[in-house]
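hey team, just a heads up i'm posting the complex here instead of the shared drive bc the drive is being weird again. everything in one block, sequence lines first with there labels, then the predicted structure for the whole assembly after. its two chains so it's a bit long, scroll down
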Amino acid sequence: MHDNKTIMTGDLNSNLQCPIPKSDYEHVLLAHGGGGKLTQQLIEKMIYSRLGNEILEKGHDGAFLPHISSELAMSTDSFVVDPIFFPGGDIGDLAINGTVNDLVCCGAEPLYISLAFILEEGFLLDELWKIIQSIEKSAHEACVKIVTGDTKVVEKGKGDKIYINTTGIGRVVPGLRISPDNCQEGDVVIINGTIGDHGIAIMSERAGFSFESGIKSDTAPLNRMMQDVFARQPNIHVLRDPTRGGLSSALNEISQSSGKGITLFESQLPVTEGVRGACEIMGFDPLYIANEGKILVILPERHAGEVLGIMRSHETGRESRIIGKISGRHGGLLHLETNIGSTRIIDMISGEMLPRIC
Amino acid sequence: MKYIDEYRDKQLVEILIRQIRDEVTRKWTIMEICGGQTHAIMKYSLQDLLPEEISLIHGPGCPVCVTPVEIIDQAVELGGKPNVILTSFGDMMRVPGSHTDLLSVRAKGGDIRIVYSPLDVIDIALSNPEREVVFFAVGFETTAPAVALAIRQAHKKNLANFSVLISHVLVPPAIEVLLTSADMRIEGFLAAGHVCTVMGTHEYIPLSERYKIPIVVTGFEPVDILLGIQKTINMLENDRYGVENAYPRSVKPEGNIAAQDLLQEVFVSCDRKWRGIGVIPGSGFTLTDDYIRFDAGKRFKLHHIVAEESERCISGKILTGQKRPSDCPAFGAECTPEKPLGAPMVSSEGACSAYYRYHLRMC
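-- predicted structure starts here --
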């Protein structure tokens, strides 16, 4: 016999935007992924109620999408972040924003998202509910529809609370040709704000790291800002979101695939005092720390002023600025012009970042 | 950011570079002791700003780098034991032992946890009374007081499941080895500012007098390092020697007395093996009789594990400044951060790591 205690109490859910639907269970059971009644209840009460739309609610094995007369872009990403709730966001908005931003970097307008959960037996339904509400809010903000999905449950200990996979489809904006190969000598590199906030927010929450940084993740969908840029100045050469591996990995990849040299100006790199402080203490470099709401825009210098103006008119681009340039020297390498007037390489990170001894 | 930005100030850097240029009349070779200084020199390309008469060579002050391979093997052995939680600073995780490293042991199921402070290990031991909790204590005089504090706490709490695999080393005996080596070409030292913050400057006075060599206590930011070089050059050009302090915002002549008292209570000096260098008399710490029960080497009978360094890694020559990383045939080819032959390629203070990370492909 299962425990009939419901978890719908005013007190328990007072911090939620919306109370969790009545359920007979507090925790995820294996049966929630078994395809039977519990799966159906979970989908109807928790997913359709918040994420439902005319495509998703058909409940078919897959989604039937309206005809789109344009080139399409598709991107997939899996989210396994620990902790699942962190300052500035949670795994739910990360899963939407991550895929939305990957589509944006293809020069596309994100339209449809698939959503797959892998849940660990025993995961709190209350926490799942919070995550679903985050997904709803992010999808709404990014104007994307969740059109198909899946829920699986693994035995306790075989997963870590919740993993999410999202796949997105978007319409490539006509006239855009975004590719790392496109960058040209004289192009400039723009970023839409401070770096390292997401990675430090996550690290400050991790067990064993008693560091109260007050830093929030920058997770945000960037499609509204970039749609505005695409509509008014399509002469963009390269787009990249500097997520894992930070600026260093994103720009090294572009440099290597284009064979062009890239120079960053240390004096122009936007880093908050909090992130700088945390990095100084731990021996990390903000150039290697993950971001979740940042985009690198590489374009001809003559269009930079116009694009900066457009980006700065959006909340997600308020602090946009030029941080580097594409140079003819040192093909395939990323350099930093330091504040003291010297130059060095910025290498791609090797393995995971480990805090130093002293 | 206070205490950071003013020591990365371009104008101050330019003033110091000008002073050094004005003063230097001949070639000088200066060794920076600490790996943190090596990384700052490479990260800010300070050598490129200095006059070509000044040659900076890199010293043995990277605790991860000088840990002998057999101690890594002992940690690997401990990390694989089912009843053991091995705790370590992050730096040690990638350092290759004879056959494997701690990251690989963890991937195979070993319970190996990165900690940020040795005191965190006390909490882990208290929360896991049924398991043995070992701290891999690596470092110079800088980290030793925090380890001593953790050991003293374990003693007070009578923690039976806590122990320490000790590989603590001391700077002055290593400097003496460098000064007495046959092919010694060092004419001045930048001493490690953080070590001196704990130990003070008095240990360096007899060394400077005995070997008639300038020793300047130096910090870790570009302005600190250039000030250390400027003071060293000033002494060399004026045919003086002595100990000077270019890091007074952190280092007092007497050091941190409370930390020194703690070290004396918990540790006693002993002979220690250094990677690539060999045994240096009196160059390490072991536990005093009152605390010897916390010695993981004894508790787990690890001392039979001995190993020799790979012949392909010239870390001994790198750590004594006889060779530069770029002189090594394996550097960047057979030895990379992804597949290191020795610790200097993966430690955040290792000279090979600094060369690879900041300059390799510009060479």
